[in-house]
Structure formats: structure tokens, C-alpha cells
Amino acid sequence: MKDNAYNRIPMWEHVTEAEWDDWKWQLRHSVKTLEQLKQIIQVTPEEEEGVRETMQGLSMSITPYWAMLMDPENPDCPIRRQVVPHADEIYVSPNDMADPCGEDKDMPVPGLVHRYPDRVLLLSTEICAAYCRHCTRRRAVGPNAAARSGPYPLELAFDYLRSNKKVRDVLISGGDPLILSDARLEYILKNLREIPHIEFVRIGSRVPVFLPQRITPELLAMLKRHGPIWMSVHFNHPKEVTKRVKQGIDALADNGIPLGSQTVLLRGINDRPYIMKKLMHELLKIRVRPYYIYQCDPVSGTSHFRTPVAVGINLMEKLRGHTSGYAVPTFVVDGPGGGGKIPVSPSYMISQDKGMYTFRNYEGKVFTYVEEFDLEREVAPRRGRKPSEAPEQERERNSSETTHKN
Q1: Residues 233, 208: contact at Cβ < 8 Å?
Q2: Catalytic residue of the set 128, 131, 139, 214
Q3: Which of 124, 170, 306, 307 would staple 311 via disulfide (CB 3.0–4.6 Å)?
């Protein structure tokens, strides 16, 4: 048997390559206990406390694939920090909220969030391949949440969608919908496709990053049967774009699934401009279009991940004009309490006065743009044209006057 790095971990000493590349094996052998974690990394006292204190809430679960990407010696490793609980999670800031996006109050039926006029969020499961420590939905995901609430009653959501003809766009999320079996996910897609007014179906997932082995020929064939389907994939750091992830993303793209990325701005992980730019470039190289950078939501226990909003604005300043437009996502803040996504960007307009706009570009150079409409009001009288008269009208008037004179 080939000596793979994971075979050096005692609990995976005899794992074969076929087993390692099986997504169901990966889930069955996820790292969930402190004893397992200690076989992989040098656990710090703060991490040990975090693991113990979060067991009744958003407990730890890490796929073996992702665990092998973690730096075993560096607790500041960006891969490690995203999934290993930390004592900082115990602290609840005065600004923290259990449901910062206000999803619960916008649920007409359980598991369906209807905030925007023509689109909804369908929560398909409480389970993920691994649990991000910055998760905005941590009140409602994980095995503990699943045990409390039970499976979402999808038929109620389908009934609501059938009766609401304004909805044309459905984002399937969770948890993570790609953690479902092919049959369960197909059941959801089939029901959505049978509703005539639903035009646009999206899947939001981090499985292609946490568990790229899930992208199987069977899954791809099923998704293709119910296409077109778009997919938003959650990437946070360039180290996540591995050769194995690229294989899965290539397979999705080759099967006609357009891909966008969603990134959460995280202190000490991706809050440096050079890291964020590198991530955006790596995404474009694998045919993933950067879509959103989110300000980290004020969800309970995540204040150690949050940056000032100004950090996000500065990141956009360092991207816009300094790299390809395709590599520039939209930076958004979710209005706390249910305000929805609010785009935030640097200000490039310096002043505006009577149709004259003064802008600065990405280099800080200043330019003035004059609107033609206001210019016409000034020059038209000197040309014998009424200010509101279009050139075609002027030609018709001149022709009429010439005919009359003749």
C-alpha cells in the first residue's frame, strides 16, 4: 500500500486510497472528539477548552480530508482556525445575536425564509460536512440542533411555493444540501422543477471544499437531469484551493453548473489584501466567479473573528482597479436583525453639482464627467434648437420649415 500522509495518523494507519476517496467513509470517520483531534494536531489549552465547552452547542466535526490540511503545530493556521473550537467562542459580546440575519421571523413555514420579493431560502438539512466556527446559522445546525428540531417538513415549503407565484428563485441551503443522499436531493429538485413559476434554482454549499470526494459521477448526472442549476461555494482562504478541490470543481463546471463563491471576512484568516486577492485569483483559475465577501455576522461567540467594516472597504479598495474586474466581488453587510444584504464599497464620487460629477479612480486621480442632458440646455439655444428637442425632431422641423418656404 502506498504510504500516504494520512496513514501516519494512528487511527487511519490502514486506510486505503479507495476508502479515503469515498465521501461516505469520510463522513463516518469525521474528527469529533478531543482524543481524535490530538492524533492530528498539537492541541492548545484554548482549543481543548473550546472543544469541551461547545459539545452541547455547535460541536466539532471535521472531515479527515480537511483535517490533513491543518498545520499540526501552528494554532493560527487558517485552515485549522475555521473548524477547531476555541475558548474565545465562550465569550458572548453585547452585540452578539442568536439569529443575526433575522431568518426565524421571515419564515412563513418552517425551513423556508422569504425576505426578498421574488426569492426564497430553502433550508434542506441541519447537517454539514464540517462546522465552520464562524457559522451564522449555528443556532440551527449541527447534530444537537438536528436532534432538537427533527427534519425540516419540506412538503410545507413546497406547498407555500406552489401558492406564491411571485417566487422565481430558490436557494437551497442548510446545513449543507450536498450532504444529503442523491435520492433526497433529487426529491427536492424534482419538486421545485414541477413548479412552473420557479425559474432559477441555486445550491449553496461548502461540501466541494470540505469534502470534494462528494462530487461523484452519480451526483453530477442527477444535477444535470434537473438543470440548469447554479452553485455558490464557500471559500475563505487560498490554501483551500487544493488539487483535489480543483478536480471536483472542474467536474461541476464541465457538467454545465455555473459556479460563484461566497467568502466571509475573518480576522487573522483572510483580512489582508494580498491574501484576499490571492484567493480571488485562485478561484478564477478554477472557473469560480467571486460573488460576495460577507462581513462576519454578529452571531453569538464569533466576536474574535470579526473585523471592523473599514477592513472590508479597504480590501475592496485594494481589489478594484488593481486586478481583473471578474476578481472583484461585492462586499456586503447583512443588516443585523433581518435587513438583508447591504452593499458597501469605497466612495469614488467626490462631488456632484448641476450635472457635473467629480470622481477619483483607483489610483487617486481626479476626473470630471459632464452629463450631456445639462450640456444640451446650455448649447441648444445657440444652435437654434429647443433644449428638450432631440436631433431627429430638429431635422423634421427644419424640413417642414423649408417646405413651407418653398
Answers
A1: yes
A2: 128
A3: 307
